Amino acid sequence: MLNLKPAFTLLTVLFGFLSYNVTVLSQSTDPSPQTIIKNMAERYAAMSSYEDAGVVETVSEGSFPRRNTDIGFKTYFTRPNKLRFEWLDYSPLSTAERNVIWRDGTKVFSFYSIEPERIETKEDVSLAVAGATGVSRGSAHTIPRLLMSEVVGFSVTELTKLSLKRQEAFEGEECYVVEGYHPNGEAWQLWISKNNFLLRKLTNPTTNGELEEQIHRDIKVDGKIADAIYHPKVAGGRIADVIPKEKEDDIRRLVELVAPRDRLIMN
Questions:
Q1: Which 8-state DSSP code applies to residue 154?
Q2: Rounded Cα–Cα distance for residues 232 and 23 (Å)
Q3: What digits encode the pLDDT tens for the residues 193-203?
Q4: Dihedral through CA 98, CA 104, CA 106, CA 112, nearest 10?
Q5: Which of 43, 118, 127, 133 is nearest to 87 (CA)?
């Protein structure tokens, strides 16, 4: 009888060798986390314009995990020097009115709903962003820091000990999940689109053991943004813009985006 054992053994070894090489080849085609961060930085630096709408949410774990929407925000940017960032604060003591910082191309302003009918002129855009960073839970700083060299302070591109944790879909977009460490020792994770290297989500731990998520949606780049966006008006203690209808629809969708702001996480 013909002995097929040597041939079978050879085929097994050959199959194992090929499988190993396919796996190694697949892994080797993934860019390094340093390259991913570099590509992201270059992408934002080259944009002629940028828009997004998003939220900052707090996720608590344990027996009764819960997700709270704390901030709803919207960003507009036109190169070289026009910026508008607005946010809604959904904390229990907030009136949930719009707060805005903006640069019209020449001057920089801020409007906070806790100070009705008061528009402040800021010395520069970096100071305006810095003033809004804490109260917006960091969302006023993350993207403007990537877009504008004048905005100073820590950038997500400065995270250290980078590693590519995995690849996964976030809200239908295939992303690289890159982990890096903040100077204070916290591990941050970034969901960066594989398609266009845009930042879709940022997570970092909070001081009380919860997780904070900053999510960027409805991203539009290199489009035309009406100049009226960068000249908001205040009337009756509120922002009263004269802007195109589609932009008003964006703001209305932003409000809908953050409700409900307090919900249980269901597995």
A1: -
A2: 54
A3: 999 999 999 99
A4: -10
A5: 133
Enumerate residues 6+ apart whose C-beta is below 8 A from 133. Answer: 140, 141, 153
Catalogue all structural domains in the chain, each as residue range(s) with its CATH number: 33-261 (2.50.20.10)
Mean pLDDT throughout 46-57?
96
CA 224 to chain centre: 21
Q: What is the DSSP string of 206-253?
A: -TTS-EEEEEEEEEEES----GGGGS--EETTEE-----HHHHHHHHH
Token pair for 203? 């997570």
Q: Residues 227-260: pLDDT tens digits?
A: 999 998 877 767 776 545 555 555 555 555 544 4
Task: Count CB neighbours of 190 within 10 A.
Answer: 27
Among 146, 126, 264, residue whose Cα is nearest residue 214: 146
Threshold 0.90, pTM exceeds: no
Q: How far apart are CA 63 and CA 83, in angstroms?
A: 42
